[in-house]
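Need a sequence for this fold. Nothing fancy.
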């Protein structure tokens, strides 16, 4: 993928900006936002680093999602989060191809399935 060098940082900022724009009340669920920014950015770097190894990426996303499961994530959160994530990816990489965007959306879906403790549907 031909992404900007600061893609993960921009994507992180755009994600939270978009999420809070869609659901302003969600801001109160994210105490320690600076730490959450760091964690999201690290997760984005891991996704990029493991993009060529689908099994490793899937395992990483499942583990990350399971850690989030305890927060009581609901399907509505997943739906809005996916929209915010997709928008953030597109804003952080305006030249992204449809295939690359699908890669990120599929990664989000894998993570979301683990957050909801559900199997991934293809």
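Here you go.
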């Amino acid at each position: 993928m031909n992404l900007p060098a600061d893609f993960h940082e921009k994507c992180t900022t755009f994600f939270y900006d978009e999420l809070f724009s869609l659901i302003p009340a969600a801001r109160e669920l994210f105490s320690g936002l600076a730490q959450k920014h760091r964690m999201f950015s690290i997760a984005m770097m891991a996704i990029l680093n493991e993009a060529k190894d689908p099994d490793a990426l899937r395992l990483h996303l499942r583990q990350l999602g399971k850690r989030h499961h305890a927060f009581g994530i609901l399907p509505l959160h997943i739906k809005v989060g996916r929209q915010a994530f997709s928008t953030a990816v597109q804003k952080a990489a305006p030249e992204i191809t449809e295939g690359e965007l699908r890669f990120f959306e599929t990664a989000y879906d894998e993570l979301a399935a683990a957050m909801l403790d559900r199997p991934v549907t293809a």
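For context: Residues 75-92 form the longest helix (18 residues).
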